[in-house]
Amino acid sequence: MCKIPTEIDNNEYIMRTIFSPANFNDKGKLRPNYMRPQISKPDEDDETIASNKLSVTRYNYTNIEFCRKHAKSHSSLPNRTYWGFARFIVKDIRDSGADVVFKPAEDNPAHANIVYPFCCKIGEPLDSKIELMIKQLVGKAKILQDPKPDSEKWEGENPLE
User: pLDDT averaged over consecutive 10-residue blocks of the chain (161 residues)?
Assistant: First the structure.
């Protein structure tokens, strides 16, 4: 992997793993809460408040095979079978009112967080404006199904088209 700048450009691509069936509704569409942080859990930077972050990968500094391997390593929980990815453009996320912040992880040097503009107590309901923002972000996703998740290599469509 190349050196990854700390600044995130508006034109960068961001990937977020989709798990099945956890991330789908009964009609086979992404759940509106797919982009919702886990407000029932404490924030990674301040345990006194609810999480306002979502993990993503900066695709411009990795490749689809890295993303697949990383996603599969996080799909061992029940109801979380690796299915593919949602691809976003940073500008769309920022235009919605959220931000994308670089936060490299040991197992993912291209890791970043989508950070939403709210602060609430753990388990407290989100403001309706934030819920609408989250729902609209789901609509910005380019859905990339992995047609053969058990194969050696990605056989799906080009993630950048």
Answer: 89 95 86 86 84 93 95 80 95 96 94 91 87 92 94 93 85
d(CA 70, CA 33): 22
Task: Please say whether the beta carbons of 111 and 59 come within 8 A.
Answer: no
Q: What is the pLDDT of residue 62?
A: 95
Which amino acid, one-letter code, is at 136? Q
> What is the side-by-side strand order in the sheet with 80-89?
99-102, 111-115, 53-58, 13-21, 80-89, 142-145
Is 58 exposed, middle or buried, given 0-12, 13-18 or 19+ CB atoms closer than 10 A? Answer: buried
The model's pTM is 0.90
